[in-house]
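[stage:ingest] chain + small molecule (pyridoxal-5'-phosphate)
[stage:ingest] validated
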Amino acid sequence: MLTGELEQTHLLPTYGPRTLMVERGRGCYLIDADGKNYLDFITGIGVNALGYGHPRLLRELHEQAALCIHTSNLYMHPFQGELAARLKQWSGLDRVFFSNSGTEAMEAALKAARARANQDGRRHQRIIALENGFHGRTAGALAITGQAKYREPFQPLIPDVIFVPANDAPALEAAANEDTIAIVAEPIQGEGGIFPLTTEFLAAIRRLTNQRDALYIADETQCGLGRTGERFAYQLHPTVAPPDVVVTAKPLAGGLPLGATIFSERAGEAITKGLHGTTFGGGPLACRVAIAFLEEVEQLLPVIRQNGAYLHQRLRALQSACPIVQEIRGHGLMAGIELAVPGEKYVEHAMQQGLLINCTHTNVLRLLPPYIIGPKEIDRACAVLHKVLNA
Ligand SMILES: Cc1ncc(COP(=O)(O)O)c(C=O)c1O
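[stage:predict] done
[stage:export] tokens:
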């Protein structure tokens, strides 16, 4: 049987048929079974942020794989505490819980909010999240995901979640009653169509959570860890005090599964021994690679800012040259091209022309290129986009 037939026969049909068979990756490129090169501007949905075959990540990976891949959390290894210290330094927060994915990292945040509220004897507990937000597919994260199509087939989910439109401070103010225990937001919404939150709205989240003794949970799974040119996207708004909890995952371990939930002391203190845990989360292989990832990204931040500005400049020029482009959104190396028409067929056409992107929210082309791109790759991607969007 061919691979496609095997998949269609044996897998749950969650993803539908795929057309591209990946053989390997090199730098900013994926290479298929026929040796065709694809410039990768979606990077496994924001995971392969240092591209493919990064020498430092490979070295750490090889060395650690030979030493020890997995310990469980019954034992210590040299890298979990060290990585937690780096994430504390990046965020200014106090304590870290490691897991394996964005959705699990969000579960830890929600459980902490719930445990804290229960400890305080709060009988009614409201969680506020944003319309079009996306936080993952496990039952807790799904309950706060602001897209009914993902939630409805699985109801009942956790109760008392209220959704308000992004950047609508009066709606947030009206929703944030005395029962509110948490407000959850992506500083730049990803799956929902690349919508950056405004400074005013983030300030309203911070003010209302302080007022209600609730937690401000920033989901940085897609927009964090250097993608915007800042360590975390909330740091694009230095006038707003930091969140109480930062949720992160995707690129953290250079393609290995690793999630991290970073808490302020106040936000995490209700999670005591035995209240939460994981078999795989925070293993030596993933943590060692993640330390290397953070060190490499730290060096790249100024370059990401520079290339991000160039990408957005080129995309605005594309907008002027392509009548179906309605708006360019995002920041740094996270960009959305909103079209006047559905975007899926342009993803397919771009792939035929050797450029990988994806479409989110029906009509938004999403670009999450690797941090190692330069003007040459940006020019090449924009040339392909110009061609397919004007065809
Ligand atoms: C903002 C955000 N949160 C959470 C998730 C879920 O992450 P994962 O697929 O690793 O569970 C995603 C995935 O796209 C995301 O973009």
